């Protein structure tokens, strides 16, 4: 990964969560330089929002470490196909499941499909999210507020509820929160609120599952170059994305996925209720 500052060409996508193949430059999400060591050999993982961005890098990283991976995606079929191909190239099996995680029935059916295919489940990554820029709290409609919470919070709850009875001793749940849960973001009020809720959920769920030895942790990325960025911000805002970080640049999905690999593996056996912060150098308490 380069440490040099980089600006992005102005660009905007009109749909959430966005298509990676339409971005310029393409995000680094294929874990090309990652050196695996069999940390997840024989494990079964489910990743929501795994078709692109951070989710794609997680899926491919898990596969490189030996896990079979099922991932959920909304409607980005071409991105999902690319992710499947890279999982298989890593030597494991892939299962792409299309649908909306705000639907509890879809979450239940997705977990059932993965368990039916492989007979087990060891790692759940709640990663899918959406965000919508609004300048004022009065600009946030009831439908937008409910939609953001439906995806980011209710989807996390529903998928966790569906998976929990299939997880056992030594297994892991990893949630994606955000730097904005700690710093706030004036134009992402509802999104930031959901990400703060995910921190609280992570800590509470970790405490409730300690006796079962199921670890629950989270990752709070900073500014990362993913499809959600051009799908959320204006073309001019995208151009300077990430420049305010201490490193002066946005991160890449490949720089975030190793945090999930660590938390999913036995290397993190003494960690639960914690949050990792791959954010380019911003100091965060908690």
From TrEMBL:
Signal peptide bounds: none
UniProtKB keywords: Oxidoreductase
Annotated InterPro entries: NAD(P)-bd_dom_sf (IPR036291), Sc_DH/Rdtase_CS (IPR020904), SDR_fam (IPR002347)
Origin superkingdom: Bacteria
Segments of this protein annotated with the region Disordered: 1-34
Pfam families found in the cross-reference section: adh_short_C2 (PF13561)
Family according to the record: Belongs to the short-chain dehydrogenases/reductases (SDR) family.
Protein name: SDR family oxidoreductase
Native organism: Gilvimarinus algae
Classification of source organism: Bacteria, Pseudomonadati, Pseudomonadota, Gammaproteobacteria, Cellvibrionales
């Amino acid at each position: 990964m380069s440490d040099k500052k980089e600006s992005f060409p102005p660009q905007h996508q009109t749909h959430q969560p966005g298509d990676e193949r339409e971005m310029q430059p393409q995000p680094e999400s294929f874990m090309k330089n990652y050196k695996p060591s069999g940390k997840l050999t024989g494990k079964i993982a489910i990743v929501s929002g795994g078709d692109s961005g951070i989710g794609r890098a997680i899926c491919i990283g898990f596969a490189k470490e030996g896990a079979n991976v099922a991932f959920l995606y909304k409607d980005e079929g071409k991105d999902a196909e690319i992710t499947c191909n890279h999982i298989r190239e890593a030597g494991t099996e892939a299962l792409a499941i299309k649908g909306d995680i705000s639907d509890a029935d879809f979450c239940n059916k997705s977990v059932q499909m993965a368990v039916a295919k492989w007979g087990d489940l060891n790692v759940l990554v709640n990663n899918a999210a959406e965000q919508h820029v609004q300048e004022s709290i009065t600009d946030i409609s009831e439908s937008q507020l409910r939609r953001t919470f439906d995806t980011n919070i209710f989807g996390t709850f529903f998928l966790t509820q569906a998976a929990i009875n299939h997880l056992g001793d030594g297994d892991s749940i990893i949630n994606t929160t955000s730097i904005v849960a700690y710093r706030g973001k004036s134009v992402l009020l509802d999104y930031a609120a959901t990400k703060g809720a995910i921190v609280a959920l992570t800590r509470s769920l970790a405490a409730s599952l300690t006796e079962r030895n199921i670890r629950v942790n989270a990752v709070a990325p900073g500014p990362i170059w993913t499809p959600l960025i051009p799908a959320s911000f204006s073309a001019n805002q995208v151009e300077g994305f990430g420049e305010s970080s201490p490193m002066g640049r946005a991160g890449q999905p490949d720089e975030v996925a190793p945090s999930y690999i660590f938390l999913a593996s036995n290397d993190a056996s003494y960690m639960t209720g914690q949050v990792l912060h791959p954010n380019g150098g911003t100091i965060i308490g908690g």
